[in-house]
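Now for today's protein.

===
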Amino acid sequence: MTGTLIRGAQVITMDAATGSTPVSRDIRIDGGVFTEIGTDLPAQVGDEVIDGTGMLVTPGFVNAHTHSWEYLYKGRYDNMPLELWMLYAYPILGGTPTSPDIVRLRTLMFAMESMKNGVTTLVDDVLETPGQDLDQLAAVAGAYESIGIRANVSGHVINRPFVDTLPFVADWLPDDLVRQVRAQPVLSADEYLDYSRTAFERHHGAAGGRVRYMLAPSGPQRCTDDLLVGATELAAEYDAEVHIHVLETKTQAVTGDELYGGQTLVEHLDGIGAMSERTTFAHGIWVTDEDIERIARRGTSVSHNAISNLKLGSGVLPWRRYHDAGVNLGLGTDGCSSSDTPRLMEVMKTAALLHKVTEPDLTRWSTVDEVLRAATIGGARSAVLDGSVGSIEVGKRADLVMFDTETLAFLPTNRLENHLVYSENGSSIVRVMVDGVTTVLDGRLTLIDEDAVIASFRAEMPGIREEQDRLDRVNDAFAPAFSRMYEQASGMPTAVNRWTGDERTWVHQPV
C-alpha cells in the first residue's frame, strides 16, 4: 500500500502543542494513520505527494449530535417550539415503517451533504417510527460504510408512552387519544438492551472500525430508570457512547420538577447512576450550577446545538459556565428538521457569535479556539473516539479537511483560524480524507455515485411526502393540548432561567 505525503501546508493540529494556531507542516499518512508530522519530510517510493502550498489542513470535523432520519423533513416546519415540533416530526401515533431501501437513501443523502462540508465523524442518533428493527439499523450502517464516513450509530429508544413524558397534556387531551397513545407498543429495558447487544455484535467496529454502535435512551423523562442505568452499564462493557437528550427546553425543566419531586433531570440521572465519562448530554441548556458541577464531576460531555436551539426557541446553552467548570463540549447540527442543515461549519460560526451577546463581559465571550476544539477534539471525546480522531497527531486515524486559502473566503489573508470560523462556509474545501482515503475531491464524492443516489432519492419523494402529509393530519388533533402545555410551562418558575438569568420568570427580552 502506498502512502500519502502532504507538503508545505498550513496545519491546525488541535494537539496540545499548537492547538488551533496554524503552523507550516508536512504530513505523512500510511496505513490510514498519521505516521509523521514535521518539516522537510522526504517522499518515499510510491508516495502520493500532495502540494499543500496555499492550503489549510484541519482535523475532520465531528458532528457530535445529529439525526440523519430527519433528512426527510428538511425545510418542512417553522415557528414551533420543540415539544410542538416533535408532535409532527416524531409522529406520536407512529407511521408506516420506513423500508431499509429508503433508510439507506436518506442516510447517504445526509452523509453526502455532511462530508462535503468537512464532517468526517457523525454521532447519528437514529430513530424510526414506530420502532427501529435490525434491518433498518443495518441500512444506516451499510450506507456509512459505503460512503467512507466515520459514524456512531444508535438505536434511539423511547419506552414510556409519549403523553406521560410531558407535563399536563394527558389531562388536556381527549380520553380516546390518550388511550391510543398508551396502547402503542414500547420496549422494556431488557428488550432494548438485548437488541443493543445484537447491534454491538453486528456493527460495533465495522468498516475497519469506522462504524460503531451507541446506546441512545431518548431522555430521562422518556425512558424508565432501569433502561437508563442498563444503557450506561452496557456502554461501559463495549467502551461505547451513551447519548441522551437532557434539558433542551424549559418544558423539560418543568418536567423534572413534575416527575422527580423537584429534582432536576441531571440530578435524577446522577442519583440513579446513569452518568459517566462515556455519556453525552445533547443540548444541556436549562441546567443549574449544581447540574454543571455534577456533569463535570462525572466527566460527562455536552453537545451544543446552537442553530437547532435557536430555531426551536429552546434557549441558549451556558457556554462560559461549562468551560469554567471544565465540562467537555462538542458541536452538533441536530436533525435536519430542527436546524435544516447537516453542515457543521454553520454551527461553528453560530456558536462563535451567539455567546458574544449573552453577557457584556467580553472576556467571557466564546473564542475561535474554543469553537474549533468543540468541532474537533471535543466532539471526538464526546463520541469516545478522542484516542483515535479529533486532532492531527502521529498514531491517530488520518481524518482531515483541506481548504484552498486562495479563495475569496480567505482573502485578504489575516488569521487563518478566524477566516475558517467566520468567513468560510465549506466552499473552499478541496479534499476530505477519512482513514487516509480521499472521500471528497474538488466537491465530488469519490466512493459512491452521488448523481445516482440523488436521482433515486428524487424518485421516492412523492411517496414520502404523501405519508408525511397524512401523518400531519393525524397529529393535528394533539396540537391544541401541546400548545397549551408549552404556554403553561413557559410561565412556570424553575431552578434556572437561561433567557434572563431571573429564576422566577421566562420572557424574551434583549440582552
Summary: The first helix runs from residue 82 to 89. The longest strand covers residues 4-11. The domain at 61-382 is CATH 3.20.20.140 (TIM Barrel).
